[in-house]
Structure formats: C-alpha cells, structure tokens
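Field reference: sequence -> structure
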Amino acid sequence: MATDLKIPLITTDSTKDVTTDSISQSTNPALRICCIGAGYVGGPTCAIIASKCPDIRITVVDVSAERIAAWNSDALPIFEPGLDEIV
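Structure field:
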C-alpha cells in the first residue's frame, strides 16, 4: 500500500543557474547535495558545507517537521560551538 510521506526540508538560497556546458567545464561537478537527517551529524555538517561552498545547493530532509522547524528558527535543535553564527 502506497502512502504519501511528506518530508520537510530546508535548502540553501545560494544557487547558480547551471547549464550542461557549465557542468562539463566545471572542476567541481557536484552542484547539489542532499542530506537525509537533520540531527546531530547531518545538520551541522550541511551547515558547514553550505557556509564553505556557497555555489553548492544543500538540501536537508528529515521525517520530523519539528526538527526542520527548529533549524529554521532562532533556537537551533542542537548546541555546537559557533553553529549559531553559521546558520
């Protein structure tokens, strides 16, 4: 039986228009990253990648809408030194 599972996600806004020509000429062909899980590993890891690689679109998905809402709020769901300044 199929179910409609809606997975909340957060994405970065730092993306560029990409064409086939720009991909073939790129030295870094990975232009999109999807992280499954916005917990203690996925959330901070993707925050660092997004801050260091603004040309890569980062998408984080999680089954918990509350966790995604927390990442999009002023009260992050986890504490990591310096993370508030990055997110």
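Note: The beta strands are 9-11, 32-36, 57-61.
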